[in-house]
Amino acid sequence: MADRPTLERLVKLNDVWLSRKDVLHGIKKYDVSSRKIRIHTDCGEVITVNNSRRSASARSLRNSKYRKVCKLCKLSDERINRFVAKDFYDPGITYVEAPVKKSAPKKVLKKGMAEASTVQTAPVAAETPQKAVSIAPQAAAQTTQTVSQSTQSTSKEPVSVSAKEKFSPSQRKRLEALLISDEINLDDPNLPPFEELEAEMVSKRKAELVDIYENSREHMLAKLERDISAFLISKGFIEIKSSILIPEEYIIRMGIDKDVELSKQVFRTDDGKCLRPMLAPVLYNYLHRFGKVMPDPLRIFEIGPCYRKESDGSSHLEEFTMVNFCQMGEGCTRENLVQLIDEFLTYLGISYEIEGDECMVYGATVDVMHGDLELSSAVVGPVPMDMDWGIDKPWIGAGFGLERLLKAKYNFKNIKRGSRSEFYYNGIYTNL
Ligand code: ATP
Ligand code: 9VF
Ligand code: MG
């Protein structure tokens, strides 16, 4: 028995098309991509369908049952008869028809429901210190605006059903994805019906995206990188851009042996290389090389993508952006490190607390926290590993995740909002 013919083959053989309402059309021409077929009918309609053997379109074409013939297509009797008689099929082949499954009806996902995320809370404008620069002024301004608008629009007659019943799980997911902050409480029983609320939020998000397009046109992650570079350069740090693909050997030289957790998180390529999980190895090499060239103290930094296999969702990305700044030589004290971190986070307008911690790479670390979120691990060297990198001077350094900084700044529930993504632009859901 042969497999069912593809939709593409059916279209080619039949030379006619059955609309959803079982109206028979002539096919003037059709285009095929790897996933879709676009049919141009003789009457001038253009229909795009999935190029699937199992689709409803494929099934109707195999069944040859039509309700009426399109008058505008002016189909000849011969074309219609050929379709009905199926005399183009190879009589030696029995085609398999898909058994009709009596399972639960397939859930039809509305646009964007599949990639829904979690609700966010409002940006941390209130705690922004005076010296702060704005990472993404639009996002903050828009959020504030939205809060006041939505307050007005929810002053409706109370609805008797409880909020839990009000939205189905998929409707809730869709609404959560559309929220940029906690501008709307989805448990509020006075909310309008789903369709109305969804339409209102979609139009706000569209307006915000258009506003970005007309005004700043800056991506919040890229803008943050630029702001951090400008800050560190102004503080005397030299900017580095090194390879993202690094020798796997560097991981081992960082003391991360095969049986260590971080080693299992490394994305390896098949030529003894890997995607860097951190910036430190190459920065070590720079300290060694520039240490021979530049005056003391030496200040260097790099900002760029890092990769780790992760399983925990809302604060971890597999592809994230790290800034690592470090100083070698004079003045490498804990006090100076903390002072630098304070100036850095004050400049970015992000509140923090300092905690002591331990890590397997450096031993004792100075962890920078925003609530429960680790923004950075910072270290006061020297450490024994320095020997393996040809470093014999004291150093201080800190590594911050940029997406975590955005999460803290805008109070995003999920780190994905500010990450490299096709689903979010500056925290705004893009599937509108
Ligand atoms: P965590 O314990 O939260 O997994 P970590 O201690 O493994 O983080 P470090 O190696 O100290 O992370 O990296 C320095 C900084 O880089 C972290 O403080 C964090 O801001 C950021 N970072 C690390 N891993 C990730 C990740 N998977 N996604 C986003 N940011 C990350
Ligand atoms: C602290 C975070 C080893 C002297 C070239 C710079 C640091 C930063 C730790 C980072 C890591 N270390 N993700 O080192 O600044 O390396 O684990 Si240097
Ligand atoms: Mg850490």
UniProtKB/TrEMBL annotation:
One of its GO terms (biological process) is translation. Keywords: Aminoacyl-tRNA synthetase, ATP-binding, Ligase, Nucleotide-binding, Protein biosynthesis. Transmembrane segments: none annotated. The keyword Aminoacyl-tRNA synthetase applies. Residues 220-432 form the Aminoacyl-transfer RNA synthetases class-II family profile domain. PROSITE patterns: AA_TRNA_LIGASE_II (PS50862). Residues 142-168 are annotated as: Disordered. InterPro entries: aa-tRNA-synth_II, aa-tRNA-synth_II/BPL/LPL, Phenylalanyl-tRNA_Synthase, Pyrrolysyl-tRNA_ligase_C, Pyrrolysyl-tRNA_ligase_N. This is Pyrrolysyl-tRNA synthetase. It comes from Methanimicrococcus blatticola. The lineage of its organism: Archaea, Methanobacteriati, Methanobacteriota, Stenosarchaea group, Methanomicrobia.
